[in-house]
Amino acid sequence: MDVRLTAEQRQLRDAAARLASDLGPGSVLDLDDRHRIARLEKAVEATGWRNLRSDGASGVEVALVVEEFGRGLVDVPFLGPVLADDLRRQVGSTVPAATIAVGSSARDARGMRHALTLDGDRVLSTEVGPRAPGADLTRHNAALRDASEPIGTLPPELAERWRVLALVATCADLVGTARGAHTLARDHAKIREQYGRTIGSYQAVAHLLAEGLALIDGSVSVLRHAAWAVDELTPAEALRAARIAKLYCARAARTVCETAVQVHGGIGNTWECLAHVHLRRALVSTELFPVRLEEIDCGLS
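Now predict its structure.
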């Protein structure tokens, strides 16, 4: 595989990064800023990126946008709708404003009317109900109403590829969230002073940040391969790559986010510090389509 991004892919990544940086929350208080959220929702809707797969985008391109939105803690629906878009595309459905449902709740459901689920090879649609509690402060959960309605069936190969895409998308969110947490900690270490020196000048802190950067680089590597595999490898090979990436990225993101809390010291344990928002998002993405180590070579001879 060629890991280099094309000019168009770099432009897509940079555009997503600018949007996330400009309109994503810069503080915990920003999470309740309805005016900012409305502007962010309008901007994301205008890009058309929630329909990336319908527009012919590759797994790599979906991952690039998800990663940047994770870094910027973008708190309007994206991951759920982009996965739902791929299901709708496969079955030819026109269900509007859809996200995904996992278990008994709709995920990434702010403002969504329907949630889609892949049950075996059947695609089911369920109406979204009221908001439900959740640990992630940037993405809403919601209850599901009544019974699910079948809207189509996928061939086994396409169903498997969608599951690979779902794993890759959550991996990308984990990588982005870790990058955002690391940047937050690094910037704090540059200005926070103890004993007359910035804390980043002390080896104990510098080594923590360096180790976090190494974990992020490793995560980017396995993510890029898994994202490429979505469209280029057989479903079984792509699933194995995605499972490996999910395990690595989940463990790395938790370490990086917890390190960010530690680098902030006592401030990191307060509600006002944005570090816990990154950690919450990482923990929820880890449990969204979770993977166990025993599953890596499951079904392979």
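The longest strand covers residues 141-153.
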